[in-house]
Amino acid sequence: MNPTLTTLMAHRSIRQFTDQPLTATEVDTLITAAQHAPTSTFSQQYSIISVTDPKKLAVLSDITGHHWLKRAGHYFIMVADQYRNQQLVPATATTQANLHSLDKLLAAIFDATIATEAMVTAGESMGLGSTIMGSILNDAQRVIDLLDLPPLTFPILGLAMGHPAEQPEQKPRLPQSLMHFTDGYQRLAANDPTLMAYDHLITDYYHQRGSHQRDETFTHHIISEMNRDPQNRATILTALQHQGFLTH
Ligand SMILES: Cc1cc2nc3c(=O)[nH]c(=O)nc-3n(C[C@H](O)[C@H](O)[C@H](O)COP(=O)(O)O)c2cc1C
Fold first, then answer.
1. Is the pLDDT of residue 32 over 90?
2. Would the pLDDT of 211 be above 90?
3. Which terminus in the chain has less CB density within 10 A, N or C?
4. Neighbouring C-beta atoms of residue 68, cutoff 10 Å
5. 71 CB under 6 A from ligand 1?
6. What is the per-residue pLDDT for 187?
7. What whole-number distance in Å separates Cα of residue 55 and Cα of residue 51?
8. Beta strands of 122-192 (E only): which ranges?
9. Rounded to the nearest whole angstrom, what is the distance from the C-alpha of residue 12 to the centroid of ligand 1?
10. Which are the contacts of 3, defined by CB distance < 8 A and separation ≥ 6?
């Protein structure tokens, strides 16, 4: 073990924070850590918006349903961004086809996502805690309007960061034999005993944890996730196309 591995392996999402805001230096350090993350084709195709206006934080808490985000020490929105690079290239048929393509959308999403995790880990190494929020996509268009996002940008994740006021139990992850394979994909067997043992482990975790106790296996969790009404996120493609992605 070393300090980096200790930090990575101690991860848990934090949803309760003290009143202490992040300092400007802490925010600067987190952004710098994000900037040192790998970036596809060195195109740095993402931006980060610090949301400080209480009215905007209130809208984001409505969109995500996470009203505790207003008590975070700082709130970031991670933006997939081809807009800035579009300003740098002469508009030709080729550059337009590239900028609006699935390939470049994915690259921007990769960049923003990898930067997000760099901030999570950097924050944890500084004694901070955080929760990533995909739930800003409950109403992507409203986030776009709220933050005045230009064409070829898209908000992909929120990130609430602050000084932890809780120390939740760690969520046990899948046994490695179910997710790390050698030289090819290992298909899941019916009634796989390793998965059944993991289901029991997750049931025990949910029974024993300090808050939001429930009676649920991992399999039940996935079944309920997959039974959510897909219409709730059906507007994502419309919002993406409205921003100019996937139009060529
Ligand atoms: C892409 C992504 C989106 C997420 N969105 C949310 C979210 O909207 N709300 C939330 O409370 N947690 C969110 N999370 C946090 C996960 O729920 C959390 O990582 C997972 O339950 C595992 O728990 P842990 O991070 O404490 O180990 C998100 C995590 C990721 C990676």
1. yes
2. no
3. N
4. 14
5. no
6. 97
7. 10
8. 129-133, 153-162
9. 9
10. 125
Q: Are 32 and 172 in contact (CB under 8 A)?
A: no
Closest CA to 242 of 156, 139, 154, 158: 154
Q: What are the structural domain ranges in the chain?
A: 3-169+230-242, 176-224
Kindly list the distances between the CA atom of residue 245 and the CA atoms of 98, 140, 188, 197, 216, in Å, as whole numbers in the listed order: 10, 14, 35, 43, 39
pLDDT tens digit sequence for 113-156: 999 999 999 999 999 999 999 999 999 999 999 999 999 999 99
CA of 131 to the centre of ligand 1 (A): 6
- Work out the angle between the directed axes of helices 102-125 and 24-35 (0-180°, nearest 10): 130
Say which residue the tokens 């739930």 belong to: 135
CB of 142 closer than 8 Å to CB of 63: yes
Q: Is 134 in the pocket of ligand 1 (CB under 6 A)?
A: yes
Q: How far is CA 55 from CA 4, 19, 129, 145, in A?
A: 37, 18, 23, 14
Q: Which fold has domain 3-169+230-242?
A: NADH Oxidase (3.40.109)
Ligand 1: atom nearest CA of 136 is 8
Edge-to-edge strands of the sheet including 153-162? 46-50, 74-81, 153-162, 129-133
| Distance from C-alpha of 122 to C-alpha of 79, rounded to nearest angstrom | 19
SS3 228: coil
Q: Could you identify the atom of ligand 1 that is nearest to the CA of residue 135?
A: 8
